[in-house]
Design a protein that fits this description.
There is one protein chain. By secondary structure, this protein is of the alpha+beta class. The chain is built from one helix and two strands. A two-stranded antiparallel ribbon has the order 1-2. A hairpin with a 5-residue loop joins strand 1 and strand 2. The longest helix is centred in the last third of the chain and has 26 residues. 0% of the residues are buried. The model has no long low-confidence stretch (mean pLDDT 95).
Length: 47
């Protein structure tokens, strides 16, 4: 898996894993599902 290293101003190295295309697509659909579920819930409460 690809990693990226960022050196901060306090001289601390942060090593982060880069997400693959599949992981990004899955995260997008999970976000849409959560946002739409909350929107429907709010509409049910209001009306």
């Amino acid at each position: 898996m690809n990693q990226i290293t960022i050196n901060t101003s306090q001289n601390v190295n942060l090593e982060l894993k880069v997400a693959s295309v599949g992981e990004r697509i899955a995260a997008f659909f999970m976000d849409v599902l959560i946002k739409d579920s909350l929107s429907c819930l709010c509409l049910l409460v209001v009306f």
